[in-house]
Amino acid sequence: MALYILLSFLSFYCACYKLPVGLKYGINLVVFAWACAAFFVSPQFEHALFCLRFFILFFFPYLMFWLWSAGIWITEFQSWPYILRGSQNIIYMLTNILYVIGAVYLFDENATTYTLISMALANFAVFVQVGLRFGFPRLISEYITLLLTFADNTGGAVRQMELHDMVYGWGTYVVYYMIHRSFKEEKNIWKFIVSVFFFTLAMKRIAIPGAMAAVMFYWVMKWFVKRFGTRPLRGIITIITVVSIAGLFGYLMIIRSGLFIELAERYDVDLMSRDRLWTFYQDIYWLSPTYLGKGIRFIYNYGSTHMENIDIPIAVVHNVFLELYIETGFWCWIVWLFYELSFRVKRLLEMFDAEAALGMMAMNIYVFSTYLTDNTSFYFPINVTYRLVMMTWCYEILRYRQKKVVVPVYDD
After folding, report:
1. Fewer CB within 10 Å: N-end or C-end of the chain?
2. Comparing C-alpha atoms, which of 207, 234, 233 is closest to residue 221?
3. What does the pLDDT look like over 200-222, one tens digit per residue?
């Protein structure tokens, strides 16, 4: 446990921008290798199969992105450095998922708590550093002001705690502890308080309504299933998927047309240069089934080589839906959304129960809310934590179900 917490602490300390970013990917492989060694020493075949199934469920979209992009790169005769840069993030996500399944194999449902402890230690280390630099009274005072003004008034000290990567990972835990019922009757209040503290300390305004929407959706659907049973659930999942895909495509349409920017200007909404980023890329893509994409990580490559006379970073667009549409094209984008919102949710419904499916849907709402205005598709903390909590939740359901099985005993 101590070794895992130490390794995870170093990974999340990288996400706090305090260590080289590549270190966490090496640690990912160390944890996975540790799990493999544990399997060879004392194999748990059912547990390994459980982890393998989730690896496939989680990694398929990234494999699809890479294969689709490989076809684009080959037909466009792209250079090897370009292809390697495009493949790099897929490899990073592969190591993230290997880390998650390794942690669950080693520590079962306890991996969720151990990972939370390591995140808290990393975030707290930064908190102490900032407090020593600016003074703890000032830091705490600015934190209270941040809460009261909903981030309209952000002081210089508390701004140092705005760790973009970490905050979205804390949002996962906030949602999880508001919807998850421990099968071991554990009291998770201290974990929830820690999660809320670090989540609000960085205060990303898009993440808070996203988390609230996820929690509300879960409990409404939980009531619905209790009232009407699970039979209508598959149809509801399909309807939600179709409506979501249509809505997100409409979202891209109003961005592409400039209407979104016009509305933001009319209602005095600060897009923080996102309007300039979206305008910069609007001539590169079109909204049609004939648009096949430019290949994964195109925006980073293109933006990095077109920085002349531009005073903002253009290697990102702060909108995952737009980014992946530009990079993977119409059809791959549609399949990705269908897979995330429908196929994977229904698989959890079949493999476990409605609670697992609803939990996954709630996590989708939270994660997708961050996609609207940020680049969280490859952020380490959120991608690790939301997959980790869903795996451990499903593992709890599996173990609880097995404990309820009564083995009959027959007398001679």
Report:
1. C
2. 233
3. 998 888 899 999 999 999 999 99
